[in-house]
Amino acid sequence: MRILLAEDEESLRVMLKLNLELENYEVVASADGKDALKRFREQHFDLLLLDVMLPEVDGFQIAEQVRLTNTDVPIIMLTAKDTSNDRITGLKKGADDYLTKPFVLEELLLRVQKLIKRTSKSPENTPDIYEFDGNHVNFATYEAEGVNGNVHLTKKEAMLLKLLIDRKNEVVSRQQILQSVWGYDVYPSTRTIDNFILSFRKYFERDPHDPKHFLSIRGVGYKFAG
């Protein structure tokens, strides 16, 4: 599990990074909001730990920007201000939890653990052979029989198709797709994923222009409707 830690106070940043890593999390640390936002856009993270008072871009602004493209990743805000207005602002911007400094380290670690567990649902275990709406897919051989005949899927097509079917009737975010299909380091453009979805519609939809199974959810991700 990967955590983005944005904290400008060096001693606290180092301490949090060390203790999170001792809990077997992979931690990417940033000292300012601009760098944190850049890293979020370039990489996959399972949780964001954001100080409110960051240089360049504050934690509220980061949370707001994150929620424009990702509704899934949990966000914990850290602040030195113990006021209801700040807590309300953080929640309105998309934060899931809020801790006031100074805080007890054990409490923070428990909140991180619970949020990650809550948002990391185990997918269904799709069998090697899957059928839907007259289509037939063999994930062991990458062979499929669609509305227009036989199809030999590429490895990436098979991986993405299986991910969507595993998450049947759920919206799968672009970041989840990037993590599962392409890994952390090599990311394609969003257009690449769109082209895969267009191919699936061509292979498996009775009317590719009016898809019933492979749906794009604007600004969020994609869904396989079973």
Integer-rounded radius of gyration:
20 Å
Q: What order do the SSEs take from the amino end to the carboxyl end, as H and E?
A: EHEHEHEHEHEEEEHEHHEE
What distance separates the N and C termini? Answer: 29 Å
What kind of sheet is the major sheet? 5 strands, parallel
- Name of the level-1 CATH class of the largest domain: Alpha Beta
Structure description:
- The chain is an alpha/beta fold.
- The protein has two domains: 2-119, Rossmann fold; 129-224, Arc Repressor Mutant, subunit A (Orthogonal Bundle), CATH 1.10.10.10.
- It is 42% helix and 23% strand.
Q: TL;DR of this structure?
A:
The chain is built from eight helices and twelve strands. The protein has helices at residues 10-22, 33-42, 59-69, 84-92, 105-119, 155-166, 174-182, 190-204, and strands at 2-6, 26-30, 47-51, 75-79, 97-100, 129-132, 135-138, 143-146, 149-152, 171-173, 214-217, 221-224.
Give descriptors for this structure.
226 residues, alpha/beta, Rossmann fold, Arc Repressor Mutant, subunit A, 5-stranded parallel sheet, 4-stranded antiparallel sheet
Topology at a glance:
Layout: E1 2-6, H1 10-22, E2 26-30, H2 33-42, E3 47-51, H3 59-69, E4 75-79, H4 84-92, E5 97-100, H5 105-119, E6 129-132, E7 135-138, E8 143-146, E9 149-152, H6 155-166, E10 171-173, H7 174-182, H8 190-204, E11 214-217, E12 221-224
